[in-house]
Every structure is written in structure tokens, then in C-alpha cells.
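On clarity, I found the account of how folds are encoded harder to follow than it need be. For illustration, here is how one protein appears when written out as sequence plus C-alpha cells:

:::
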Amino acid sequence: MTADATGPSSTRPPGDVRMRGFAERTTVEAALDWLDRQLSELDEEQVPLDGAAGRVLAGPVTSDFDVPGFDRAMMDGFAVRAEDTDGASTYNPLVLEEIGCALPGQPHDGTLASGQAVRIMTGAPLPAGADAVLPAERAECDDRRVAVHDAVSPGKHVGRRGEDVMAGATILCAGRVLRPQDLGLLSSIGAGIVSVVRRPRVAVLTTGNEVLPAGAAPRPNRIVDANGPMLAALVARDGGAVVRRSIVADDPQVLLTAMRGDDFDVLIVSGGSSVGEEDYAPRLLAQHGELAVHGIAMRPSSPTGMGRLAGRPVFLLPGNPVSCLCAYDFFAGRAVRVLGGRSADWPHRRVAAPLARKIASPIGRVDYMRVTMNDGRVEPLGTGGASILTTTTRADGFVIVPADSEGYPAGATVTVMLYD
């Protein structure tokens, strides 16, 4: 009799932990070390500028143009030679001759001579011969005679060619997550197409005969898929794209078929990762790919597994929602970020604040402690309840207690990773 999904534990191959438990657990540090050695940035792709917000630049961007490409007025008024305004005041106005007008996109073609002025609007090219702009409120104009009531210095109210971007300058560096203002800058140098790192394509499988689709009404003995929508949102946060999301029955052949495919870069399996009789995912990964890590010294998320299938990283996340969230943030999210050209580091904003009461943690295990922030102090919510998702919705963030720490006393300053 061969060891199959229903065979007795005595016939199972070494490493099959179903109904046995983990003989030992990998440290978080060792798990991350293995993971980081598997990851490299994906190739680049070209996208239209209008679709580049939030994408990661694949390489540096250098401008072929000066921006702006001409000296221009920064105020409405009169383009003048600054030396012609020396000594002008309200009580001693100097008179210049208005010889024309310059508008944005419609420059004055002549050259300004001494004693002359050109009416100019903001953004219009500065006429040849002019070196300053006299604000309209500091002059009076009557029948082409401009009475100057104030002196201006050379360069006053003039935007110089290339003052924003010089031709040949690198304006954005590789790895930058593009913000709206970055798109404006790219547009200003004529970049209509942008080279960005390809988004990691992620397949998300939720396992379990008892799982109902998201949006279904809960029924007796059945639960609605909470992990699928949560994981899809987390993948989007980290710059990935969920290309497949499905619920898979507790059947090894059905699960194996769902785990295979060439339409994704990362596979996330939620549920079926522990030591239960129907936790098939680890065995399937070991048989058909590589199960590099199974069982990690952390709480929650200790049944987490990682490996490769057909050259792609696979993450076996616990079915309990809090454990699933924790394992994603530690491992799967890290892979999505790195493959997409982003930092491997946590994507959360961090704040330091004192503990309202102590956090206890055993040596040898990393703890993911959900916390709230009250009046500038950190209040632990507890380490248990891996299936109680509301502990994360009530939490403002979490504190990581490293494996070599027994926790923190009340009053100690801790670093909180904020969910928002």
C-alpha cells in the first residue's frame, strides 16, 4: 500500500508531519535567509505615462531637454532692461516706451533696446534684450508710455532656462515608486512611455471544503472566505496583481491541479498548511517541487511553509486569518515587493511609543503582537486568537518581539508598525 491522502501515518514518507506535529521549527531568520536567496527583480515592461502611477521605475530617467526650454516671465508686467529702472520710485518714476506684447506661446519677436519695455504675461518667453520683469502693479501705462515706480534687479521675476531640469540630468532613479508629481515631471521632458518593473502576478488559493465564496451568507458548519479578499488587497498594496483567486476543495489531485500553471509568478495557498489529516499542500509541494521550510518558530503563523514549484516561489499560509495576515507580511509580501522592484522591508509606517503594560514572550520564538495606541501609549491586545480577525481590525498596528527577547516591561519604548 502506498502512502496517499488517506493512508495510515505508518506508511507516510519522512517529513510528512500530518497528525505528528513539527519535530522542530525553522527560525524566522533562517526562513527569511532562504527566501531572500530565491528572489530577484522581474523584467521590465513599457507602460503609457497615464498608467505609470504607483509603478516602479526599471531604470534611471535622463532628460534630453532643458525644462523650461526658454527664459520666461514669472509675473504679469513688463519685460525690461534692469538698468533702465535704476532710481525709479513712486515719487521719481522713469518712463519707458512700450513696443509690443509677449504672451504664453506667442513671443515678442523684436529685441529690446535701452528705454523700451514689452508688456508680458506670466509664462511668456522673455524677449531678447530684456533681463527682468517689472510687476504690473509697480508701473502705470498710458498710450504706450510706461511709468516705472520701482527698480528691479537683473533676473527679477524671471524663470531661467533649465532651472527645473537641465538636459542630460538624471531626474528619477531606478527603483522609485512613481508618485503623481513624478508623472508631471516625466511629462515635462516628453516621456510618454515609461519603463517599469513588471508587476508580480500572484495566484491565491483558499483551501477547504467548508469555505464559501466571498460575499456569500454564512451557513451552519460553513465559513465565508476571509483570507482571499484580504490577501488580494495585501498583494495590491505591495504592487502585485492577483491574476487568479479561487477556493479549492480538500482533495489532493484538485489542489495539485490548481497549484500548477504558468500564468503567475507567485503562488499563495491559504489553509491546509499545518499537520491535520487534510493538510495536503505541504506534501504536494514536497513531492512535486521543493518544500524548503515548513514550521516556523513564530506566533502566530507557526505552520507556515515555503518552497518552489516549477521555479516559482510558493507560500503555504495558515488558514486562521490572523496567522494568514502575519505570514503574508513576513514572507509572501516580502517576495511580492522584491519581485516588483520594491524594498523588501515592511511597508508600514513606524512610530515609537511607551508600553502601557508589559509584553511577555518566550525565548526562541518571534511574536507578532497586535496593539492599540491610546493617549500616546501602546496597549497590547494579546497574542492568542489566531482565528479572531477582529483583533487586527481593532488594532492600530503590531509590535514584533524578536526570538532572543522575553518581551518588554511596562514603560519600555517599542516600535509599532501601523496598519494605516
Notes: The first helix runs from residue 28 to 38.
